[in-house]
Structures
1.
Amino acid sequence: MKIQEIAFTCYPVTDMERARSFYEGALGLKATMDHKMDDGAHWVEYDIGEGTLAIGSVTGMNPSQEGCSAALEVDDFDAAIAELKEAGVVFNFGPIETPVCHMAFVRDPDGNSIGIHKRKSNPDFASE
């Protein structure tokens, strides 16, 4: 098997309307696919650059505060953090600065962790 790329990342959600309000409102994402299935499952995708972030209300997929997280690269880290704070979004940790980036992690309405990230153009690596 040869893996070529990550096809998508998905966050399980319990209330699609509430989740979409967060992802499309607080994060400003635009839905590129919205699919309701016959079994009651509901799947929404957001294309971001070459990747796709999905949210799904699907039997067998449950939100978790301890699960994986995706980090979204932003153009203006400070402005993004200010917007999220103004919107009352819950921060899990940060903002922090590392030698290579700035980042913070927020929670969606189901408690899933989502990173807000900005790479540094000239990372400051410690010399060995």
2.
Amino acid sequence: MARVMASGVFDLIHIGHLYYLEEAKKYGEELIVVIACDETVRKKKHEPIMPAEERRKLVEALKPVDKAVIGYEHDFLRIVEEIKPDIIALGYDQHFEELEKKLKERGIKAKIVRCGKYDGDLSKTRKIIEKIRNMKEVYK
């Protein structure tokens, strides 16, 4: 049974997230999703709209997901060591510097695959926020 790991922020769940997780699930029988902790989101992206535990619960409720966990702030590979995935599924826009090298240094033997992009209009959180801002102007 192949265990697949996917990861992300998942702040405001949208169709792009669902597409990514459906694609990731195709690589194995079990999909575990790592949700970025609030501190990581603040450092790398923005102030989270939803707290990590709420994001985790929502992601875990999605059909392709078998389990969702919250990642660690300082050592993103620690959770990978705990999950022991056979496959790490990256989203089309996820960039982890020298991931293969870092996995090898830690003795983690996981294959890395890249999932495709969903081409819908509202496939990114920032696009949704921008649309809401624009709608606010219309409804004044």
3.
Amino acid sequence: MSVHESGEMYLEAIYVLHEKTGFVRSIDVSEYLGYSKPSVSRAMGILRTGDYITVDTDGSITLTEKGHEIARKIYERHTILTKLLIHIGVTEETAAADACKLEHSISDESFEALKKFAANIL
């Protein structure tokens, strides 16, 4: 099972929330992304079935190794793309919004080239 863009967004949200608080529940993901509780619940079920997350009896969501790798990759893309766009004069708000769109569709080859370029200028 491959993760679609929406799944990547959920995994990234779980990753970011876990880094901030160490404990993530569906309600936290719902609030962070601004999505309805039923939508998040459905997505968590799909991610659990795909072995991207585990959900403990207390509702705590944990990324599996597979989920963590995807989330880390997407978060790195988001961070670097946002910084590059800001560096070339895009406002922070627009840069973050555009990076969110680009991070899901850019090829690995293009991203790696941008990452190398960013390392030299940022």
